[in-house]
Amino acid sequence: MVLPPNIPAFAPTPDPLTPVRDITHQHFHPSDQVVVLKGVVAGELWGDAMRVVAPSWHTPTDEDGWRLYNATGGAQSYTTAHPRYMVHLQRRCPDCLIHLRAMEDHLLPKHTGHEALVDCGWYTVTALGQLVHIADARSGR
Predict the structure, then answer these.
(1) What is the pLDDT of residues 21-77, one digit of tens each?
(2) b vs e for 4-41, b when ≥16 Cβ sit within 10 Å of the residue's Cβ?
(3) Which residues are CB-contacts of 138 (< 8 A; sequence separation ≥ 6)?
(4) I need a surface site. Which of 28, 38, 44, 46 has the fewest CB within 10 A?
(5) Pairing mode of beta strands 86-88, 78-81
């Protein structure tokens, strides 16, 4: 089945990299532009671009997180996320570049030749407006 280019395709592709990423809360600062990587489109990684707003407790992981603003978020303009979910967008820091390259090496070969948007299904937003990776989800939340 061929999907039109703007219709997301779900491909349950495992993400072994983000759940074990060792990145601290101090790595990000208010006003940083970040991206939460979610999949692949036309041979490139894609995700939601957001701006870091303020520190916030990330209930799904019981760790320090960040409140993020997504200018195109509609009803979900603000979310709270764990730092390991984010990659700097406007500056090239070594930690984020290493993670970005590892994600490219892991994902892009699996989706070579696909033009449709592939949402790997790693994230969901809880009732509290918290972005949670499937590896961090707790039963009952």
Answers:
(1) 999 999 999 999 999 999 999 999 999 999 999 999 999 999 999 999 998 877 789
(2) eeeeebebebebeebeebebeeeebeeebebbbbbbbb
(3) 60
(4) 44
(5) unpaired
Q: What angle do CA 36, 120, 139 make, to 5 degrees?
A: 85
> How many C-beta atoms surround the C-beta of residue 130 within 10 A?
22
Residue 137, token pair as written in the block: 């989800």
Q: Is 133 helix (H, G, I), strand (E, B) or coil?
A: strand
Half-sphere exposure of 127 (CA within 13 A, CB side): 2
**Token output for 124:** 């969901």
Q: Which parts of the chain fold into alpha helices (H)?
A: 94-107
